Amino acid sequence: MSVETSAVETDSTSADFMASVSSSEKQNRVSGFAISDEVVLETKDVNVYYGNHHALHDTSLAFHKDEITALIGPSGCGKSTFLRSLNLMNREIRGCRVDGEIEYRGHNINTPSENLYELRKSIGMVFQQPNPFHMSIYDNITFAPRRHGVRGKDVLDQMVEESLRGAALWDEVKDKLDKSAFALSGGQQQRLCIARTLAVHPDVILFDEPCSALDPISTLAIEDLMRNVVKDRAIVIVTHNMEQASRVSNRTAFFYMGDMVEYGETEQIFQRPNDARLNDYLTGMFS
Amino acid sequence: MAKQMPKRNLEKVGLGVTGACVVLVTLVVLALIIMVAQKGLSAFFKDGVNIAGFFGGTKWDLSNSDQNGMPYTGALPLIVTSFSVTILSTIIALPVSLGSAIFAVEIRPRFGSKVFQPLIELLTGIPSVVFGLIGFHVVVGACKAIFGVSTGLGILPGSIVLAVMILPTVTTLSIDALRAVPDGYRQGSLALGYTRWQTIWHVVLKSALPSLMTAVILGMTRAFGETLAVRMVIGGIEKMPTGLLDAASTITTTLTTSMAVYAEGSAQDDILWALGLLLMGMSLIFILIIHLIGRKGAKARG
Fold this sequence. Notes:
The complex is a heterodimer.
Chain A: H1 2-10, H2 12-31, E1 39-50, E2 53-64, E3 68-72, H3 79-86, E4 96-104, E5 107-108, H4 116-122, E6 123-126, H5 137-147, H6 153-166, H7 170-173, H8 186-198, E7 204-208, H9 216-229, E8 234-238, H10 242-248, E9 251-256, E10 259-265, H11 266-271, H12 276-282
Parallel strand pairs in A: 3-8, 3-9, 6-7, 7-8
Antiparallel strand pairs in A: 1-2, 1-4, 4-5, 9-10
Chain B: H1 4-45, H2 51-56, E1 60-65, E2 71-73, H3 76-107, H4 109-124, H5 128-147, H6 155-179, H7 183-191, H8 196-225, H9 228-234, H10 251-258, H11 267-301
Helix pairs in contact in B: 1-11, 3-4, 3-6, 3-8, 4-6, 5-6, 5-9, 6-8, 6-9, 7-8, 8-11, 10-11
């Protein structure tokens, strides 16, 4: 584990978090918490810069199959920046640079030659504001599959039904597939965006504060949905809502001022935080 | 409460003044429409000009009379020329406008808002006579040299000059249309594996389509009504154009040329008013189309 030793040598914050990682691993073994060993996506010493601003420091995290990982922390802590690095969305921002390795199924994707457009088929993303396209519900779902070469009405029809069922939206919209997506409520629109992502069968889905624009009932519906779709894939969610993180996630990582401070099993993070800053954050000393 | 009295009076004065402005504008607009309509229609109902002949006839000659003592009032050549320059100039201007709008919004947004847009807005302020002058010396000269024709006047140079003139309108409105597309659409599309270009094509342009169509129609309205610059390069001969480099005349240019020639109340004078009515009707139709597009867009957004 060369990464671990170098991190320990270089700064104490990383050392803290490494210690917390190893302690939580021990706890996992003790508590017998069902975790999968299969790592789908892993970052090694990822740094993100916006121009001269160093927004994220040496972040190493692993995301496992069948697991939801929550990224929490105060505004501006770098959690969204980190999330947007995972599908290389940061490349669309002028002046943004991402250093370090991002390994998707064992292969570093943070290289200039990486095919972003194929990659984003495997690593989907759902945004804070529901952002269905200005087209029919049906076309919203078939939008991505068509780009990735899926043809034929039967295949597409089936795909639409599967995706909408997957996003628990089918029964509500099956009679109005040709209607504009804007006719749906905010919560339905967000589920449509999830369905749209499911249509290309991603391995990883990144959620960037998916419920912050939604009412409580829609929020619970999205959380249920996340638990259902996490089967056979990894989910990473950025959230400001601590209850949400504790409700849905298997593991949680706490970010503070550009550092990934503590990472562990969600129960441990919320019940027995190691880092004082995390403890302060959880007890509402700052937000 | 004595202090409040003058205030209340002021409110009344305010109401009176602003209300009077509205009444004035309404009266002017109504008077304008009624006058043009009455004068224009009297060509058909008082002087007995054949409506079908006006829209379908191909011989326009006000200074000579046919066997019934009526001037030749077939306006079809003028209508055809007007529509030709309008459509052709739009065809020339649209790709350039759209291309530069895409570059200025999607590809180099800072250059777009800091450099390009001020530059293009500068173009809006140039008087049309200057465009006409440049058109006469440069475009007409070029047409003469390139196509080897004797005058170089006609629909083609007219359309080129008009294209340059409507370019700023169409470009600025297209830029606004593209900017109005929410960023979430672009991000959503990129996150689904669309490339930047595919995102622009399938998402941005598609969502901006109603506003882009409005931009185009406003450009066409301007092209249809523009007179002076066109008059300087089109040749001003009222006959059915047979080619793009054939001297012709639009509805507007004929109006300016013949305006002061005929006595008021004569059939010739009335028929010119009918041309004015036609122009007004066309611009009304253009505006109606814009409203329909806007309403359809609003409906699609739910």
